[in-house]
Amino acid sequence: DAGITQSPRHKVTETGTPVTLRCHQTENHRYMYWYRQDPGHGLRLIHYSYGVKDTDKGEVSDGYSVSRSKTEDFLLTLESATSSQTSVYFCAISAQAYGYTFGSGTRLTVV
Amino acid sequence: KQEVTQIPAALSVPEGENLVLNCSFTDSAIYNLQWFRQDPGKGLTSLLLIQSSQREQTSGRLNASLDKSSGRSTLYIAASQPGDSATYLCAVSVVSGGGADGLTFGKGTHLIIQP
Asked: What's the pLDDT band for B98 if we cut at 50, 70, 90?
């Protein structure tokens, strides 16, 4: 979707290294989210934000941190990547009348 | 904890058939229900959004209904086409006093339309 972009699209990293994924929106929506998608588990919420500097944990937040210094950017950091964090990561934005819009995803491989 | 179940997990039908995908959720105190489509290796595309005060939404050959009291939603696809082949995901957002705090997803129905 043109209103939300994720970078990078693909990344391979080594175990123990820090990794930051970026989500950028042009819709000026208040709410932003990070999900991961894994076979057999579906999509699970990692963290979400309800405003600049306002964030909260989701279902699978261990090993992840987030930051939101501007309305348009929401960063997800894996502080020390592990193989269990190999996944596809999706960012989403939401507005009451429009529901949720998802980015194209980042495929992360931890080796 | 809200749980969302989608039945069937997989479905293969010949082109032209009308079909129904089912979604159930355990907590009826939902804010919205949204149906998505996901093609292999791609992101999620929103198909239909039903707000809690609504009972159904329609877009082209798609119709989604919502019955909060029974915790169910159905997605009806009319005159199916091979291009409809994808995974269909149902998701609900929960009522929250502080605002939206995310969607809970079902695991999806993998749909194949045979030419």
From this structure: very low
Please give the structure tokens belonging to residue B105. Answer: 């997803």
> Taking CB atoms and an 8 Å limit, are A98 and B42 in contact across chains?
no
Residue of A nearest to B34 (CA): A99
Question: B37, B44, B45, B52: which to substitute to probe chain A, counting the most A Cβ within 10 Å?
Answer: B44
Where in B8-102 does DSSP place strands (E)? 10-14, 19-25, 30-38, 44-51, 56-59, 62-67, 72-77, 86-94
Strand, coil or helix: A84? helix
Residues of chain A with pLDDT under 70: 1-2
Task: Give residue-wise pLDDT tens across range B54-86.
Answer: 999 999 999 999 999 999 999 999 999 999 999
Dihedral, CA atoms, B34, A100, B82, B76, nearest 10 degrees? 10
Res B103: pLDDT? 87
Backbone angles phi, psi at B82, to 5 degrees: -55, -30
Pairing state between β A73-78 and A54-57: unpaired
